[in-house]
Amino acid sequence: MKTYEQINKRIESGKAVVLTADEIMDYVDKKGLAAAAEEVDVVTTATFGPMCSSGCTLNFGHSKPKIRMSEAWVQDVLVYTGLAAVDVYLGATQLRHGDPANMYYPGEFRYGGAHVMEDLVAGKTLQLFALSYGTDCYPLREIRTYFTINDLNQAIMLNPRNCYQNYNVAVNDSDKAIYTYMGTLDPNRKNANYCSAGQLSPLLNDPFYETIGVGTRVWLAGAQGLVYAEGTQHAGGGERTPNGIPKGGAGTLALTADMKQMIPEFVRGVSLRGYGVSLAIGVGIPIPILNENVLKRTCIRDRDILAPVVDYSSDYPQNTGKVIDYVSYEQLRSGQIEIEGKTIAVGSLSSYYMALKIANLLADEIRRGEFTITRPVAYLAKDKRMKPLLIRGKPS
Amino acid sequence: MSRTITKKLMLFFPKCECEKPIIYHLVKDHNLIVNIYRAKVTPEEEGYLVLDVTGTEKNIAQAMAFVKTFNVSINETGKGVVRDEDGCTHCGHCIPHCPPGALRIADKATREVVYNAADCIECLACIRVCPFGACASAF
């Protein structure tokens, strides 16, 4: 048994024993659970992949004369201005003004909100264009100027939903190619796409949310940020395997961090053909090894984690809830899965390579005493279920 | 009889050479087997051609000397499909879409995606599916 304070003392003195969630299973197999729980202070987890529910708040400071922006575009991408005078919210999936979307199907979606976020973190010069109706205190009616992240007072990433605990494997049972947020899916189940870091993924290493909660310090694209709330659609109450691993989406996290501290490599715009724009972001979360149970749960392996295979040509869009079958991440990573007697080629949207890099970067920061752990200020709900949106007639 | 080899080449045709039947002469006069992967040779414009040539080293050398007399540049290293190493995040979305396995996971532990240009058949599927725009065509 260790406390958060004891682990932080060891981190601060540079003596913490830190392993990644990719290394810990073999280590525990070798040392035994009890001995390893005594010795290991932190296990680092990570993920890197498209997470659509991402965005950022920006504060531009005041021009002379002042403007109260009522409509604004950064790099021709519309930002939300229903906030104070020069505060805006830029959403990752917003398309650039004039993008033909799927008018010429499948659309290419080459540049959108996520690409603006990538360029912002990369230090590029961006264009701001804003309009206003003009007020006595904010008389300017129009502004066009150029800025970099260094010119902004704040650039705070604010992602309502990141780090899905587990995720679907998408296939296409129709007879024509479909273009989804899970990538391009060839007809007649020719290929399957998954999107999770599996055994390295944060919430799969803490399936009951015992250490990751609201207030947990996280590594968000290189910056030290935190979990500011449960993520949208957080639903930890779904079906689980006997070892406690959710058999579908389940938990999510809402994350925030200062974009001025981020590393460009881990903030990447994504163009999903025929679907739209998304942001691929890197997240690392340390799990403090408080006791044997917490350690045991970080020893989860790809072969023990099941993902539901869902038809994205019919069951997903029609919201039928039908699952064709379950496959393990070990099978998925082999490059082929077998469903109903047919062998299907597998691709991924989540990068294990990048997740591994993040888990190692975070482990190094903790070993150097630069990243300490935090006790959650509130825990995530374990029993919540996802509510559907009912289409109702107007109440009389 | 010298050994038969296969070479992958990318030819660049300047505007003035687009209307000459150069590949015909590679087959007819130099006894080469040609396998064209991708071509964009349009009259009044510049053109590119990516192909395999199979034949003896001597015949290939003579054929290349013949090709060069038309001001056609021969690129033995550059390929029609290029990957931006920094743009790739190694997600692996391209892998099931790459028929010859030119894009593949080299190391099961790190899951790094590698690209072997020599295996590429220039189908351009990777360009269509890469979410990060990491694959591009030279023409």
For the secondary structure, the number of strands of chain A is 22
Biggest sheet strand order of chain B reads 2-3-1-4
> How many angstroms does the end-to-end distance of chain A come to?
60 Å
Taken in chain order, the helices and strands of chain B follow as EHEEHEEEEHE
- Structure annotation, total helices of chain B: 3
Principal-axes shape call of chain A: globular
Task: Give the averaged pLDDT of chain A, no decimals.
Answer: 97
Kindly name the structural category of chain A. alpha+beta
- Describe the main β-sheet of chain A briefly: 10 strands, mixed
| Helical residue percent band of chain A | 10-25%
Main pleated sheet of chain B: 4 strands, antiparallel
Strand content of chain A: 25-35%
- Low-pLDDT regions of chain A: none
In the CATH hierarchy, the architecture of the largest domain in chain B is 2-Layer Sandwich
Number of domains of chain B: 2
Shape of chain B: globular
Could you tell me the CATH topology label of the largest domain in chain B.
Answer: Alpha-Beta Plaits
Q: What is the average of the pLDDT values of chain B?
A: 90
Strand element count of chain B: 8
This entry's quaternary arrangement is heterodimer
What does this structure look like?
The complex is a heterodimer of chains A (396) and B (139). In chain A, strand 21 (336-339) and strand 22 (342-348) form a beta hairpin. With 396 residues, chain A is of the alpha+beta class. Chain A has a domain at 55-157. The mean pLDDT of chain A is 97. Chain A is built from nine helices and 22 strands. In chain A, the strands form five sheets. In chain A, strands 1, 2, 3, 6, 9, 14, 15, 16, 17 and 18 form a ten-stranded mixed beta sheet that branches. Chain A has a four-stranded antiparallel beta sheet with strand order 5-4-7-8. Chain B is an alpha+beta fold and 139 residues long. Chain B folds into two domains: 4-75, ACT domain (Alpha-Beta Plaits); 81-137, 2-Layer Sandwich (Alpha-Beta Plaits), CATH 3.30.70.20. Chain B is built from three helices and eight strands. Chain B has helices spanning 22-28, 57-68, 125-129, and strands at 4-13, 33-41, 47-56, 73-75, 81-83, 103-105, 113-115, 135-137. In chain B, the strands form three sheets. Chain B has a four-stranded antiparallel beta sheet. A two-stranded antiparallel sheet of chain B has the order 5-8. A two-stranded antiparallel ribbon of chain B has the order 6-7. The model of chain B has no long low-confidence stretch (mean pLDDT 90). Chains A and B meet through strand 2, strand 13, strand 17, strand 22 and helix 9 of A and loops of B.
